[in-house]
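Researcher: Go.
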Amino acid sequence: MSVLEHKSFISGIPPFDRLQEHEIEAVADAMDIAYFKKGEKLIQRGKSPDALYIIIKGIVQELRDEEVISVYASQDSFDAISLMEGQSKNDFLVLEELICYTLPKEIFATLLQNNTSFQEFYYQDLSKRLASLIEQRNNKDLASFMVAKIQDAYIHPPLSVDASATVYDAVQTMTHLKANFILVQRGTEQGIITDKDLRDHIVLQRYPIDDPVGNIATFNLIEMEAEDFLLHALLVMIRSSIKHLIIRKHGEVLGVLEQIDLLSYLSNHTRLVAVQIDRAQNLEQLKAASHNMMKMIQSFQANGMKIKYMMEWVRELNQQIFKKLYALLAPPAVVENSCLIVMGSEGRGEQILKTDQDNAIILRDGFVYDKMDQLAQALTDTLLDFGYPPCPGRIMANNPYWCKPLQEFKEHIFQWVIEFQEPLMNLAIFCDAVPMAGDASLLEEAKTYLYDRLQDHQTFFSHFAKPVLAFETPLGFFANFIVEKSEHKNALDIKKGGIFPVVHGVRSLALEHRILKTNTVERIKALTEKEVFEKPFAADLMEALCFMVSLRLRFELEKVTRNEPYDNYIKPTKLNKLERDLLKDSFKIVNSFKQFITYHFKLDRVT
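Model: Structure:
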């Protein structure tokens, strides 16, 4: 291979991608290519290696007392720690014939000394290392549209009329400019009037065309900065049910971003479900939009979208689907006198692919609808048709236990908290509830009742938090992964082993501190503000959780591609060295968190 090929190969491998051009050239010049047969021992425990190995082809095992600690494959490097500490703590054995680069330790030492960023890769604390490596991996293949700014799309000039102008004059101006909207200036306020406003007020309500346009304009407009992300702008539009945003740059109004122009910019990159949901007029159209979410998720994941943004997107679109679905199925009187809620991972906004239905309907006390059981069954059946599997524990609206008046929900809460008559996981699921359609105040009142019952019920909190210790973290004493040997051979359950302990532990703390947020990351931030967590530990916990969720999604999508049912199992052997190290670091954080929860809630005293 030529020096140019050496440079091309090495420059894309962490942490060599942090080097300056002249440093890359020095590395390429100093490297040699070596070949080793299967079974050869490259580095012996207690000895000092004379080079850093960077694998081109082959597999190497790291062993301690004959136990496999780690496995290295193409583009992995080893053993930097031995070079820095002067001797190796483990043996390195060639598992499959090996072709690799060898970088002399003198050159490696020089890089450490002269390049701070390169040095930080090995020395920075866990939180920064985890965050930077995740960022590095996510940004590697990030498509341009994921980082597109509002200013990259077409921004309409801020053309306006005074609020005192007549409707006739405003329409004349719009016609002359060939525009379907125009801004309305009322003192320092910016308003807007659109074709739809004109149709609703002039045609349907017969508003006089010689009266001031300001009386029918919409004010208090939402504004964003030109430097904001375009995808965030779309999310704001969906949340607020608007189609126009005022865009500012350096404090001045730059113009107006219209939703159709935003969608036009994005349409070549992904099938945006939001438009289909908005336009759906029946169940079949809504079902098509729901099914297209999978393609959108696959596109987002393939293009490196950060997991927290992906979860936010899916949560918002799911809410739009549920809201429209409930409106299509339920009579207006039912919508007004009930609250459709989702719970569990759906309520936390942490479920990306469709999972078991966890939903319920809270009815206003005194409201009676004699076909409520048929409506609840229709809701469950439709969601099943949309691809949401039934809940094995029957936590669904078609179960009368989860479809009843507010007062009866309060009675359930009393039993959960005071009498311990029901499984506490019912309460755990309910803690994550968010309103999807109907009157949200019904859920708010139920949760207020819950927090009022808790007070300082320390015995309850200890029992509630105990499931954090229900599953062992799949990480051995020597930092090796503990995998199953039977049905899910060589795989581990990342939900039980890593995600669940964090989610439920944080949920327990949030309940104790009356934090109303349901998303786990948002709960961690709120707990940090209350000084329950120190900031570095909170950062570790959030990064670890996001990384584990992103890994689970990757393996789920691979199974979807193969038309296999997806689950929570991942195979560490299918991870590269970087990902394996991140997962080990994440599991270490999980263990530290378990110790924190055990001490905080005195779980060692709970029987």
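Model: Residues 467-605 form a domain with the Four Helix Bundle (Hemerythrin (Met), subunit A) fold (CATH 1.20.120).
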